[in-house]
Amino acid sequence: MNRQNFTVVVIDDDLNFSESLTALLRIGGFITEHFSSVEAAINGAGQSEKLFMTILDHDFSVGSQTGLVGYEFSNFLKKNHWAGKVMPIIYLTGRESKEGFEQAISTFGGYAPDEYIPKSKLASDPGYLETRIDLYLDRLYNFEASVDEHGINIAIGQFTDWID
Asked: Model-level pTM?
């Protein structure tokens, strides 16, 4: 899948972090969109018809009117977007723990984010996030090719087999 035609949606209320992350993603060739709250992301990216990847924070103290956390966006997107179950969501946060993420998986099941990455991991391994994004792009490329060849229902079935 061509990076120049692919959008990465960043949902984080830390403006300095978001600006740095979106700048790095754009340098890497991605199209980026940024939202500072779950509500804004639901009303923006959540209504999009295109495939995209999400990098999602946990806690939103700025801009949130309802106190929604990142898991609610993941739940909304995976339930409501035509390709929500196959669009990758990386939970990149400094406030949620690995244990909390594992609890969310048991609570939300297939509607939870796909992967947890602590923000501190980016400092210790700067290329890690890009490597993970490329892995998910390869999976989406395979999904898109399968849709073209077999149709959406068969493609979703094949995709879920690939990630199990």
From this structure: 0.82
Q: Which residue in 71, 111, 61 sits closest to 91, CA to CA?
A: 71
Per-residue pLDDT band for 100 (boundaries 50, 70, 90) equals: confident
- In the block, residue with structure tokens 């094949």: 158
3-state helix, strand, coil in the chain (%, to 5): 55, 15, 30
Q: Which residue carries 């061509």 as its tokens?
A: 2
Nearest Cα to Cα of residue 9 among 63, 62, 50: 50
Average pLDDT rounded to a whole number, residues 81-102:
86
**d(Cα 99, Cα 101) in Å, to the nearest integer?**
5
Q: What is the 3-state secondary structure of 46-63?
A: HHCCCCEEEEECCCCCCC
122 token code pair: 């980016």
What is 3-119's CATH topology? Rossmann fold (3.40.50)
CB 34 within 8 A of CB 49: no
Helix (H), strand (E) at residue 64: none
Report whether 9 contacts 52 (CB < 8 A): yes
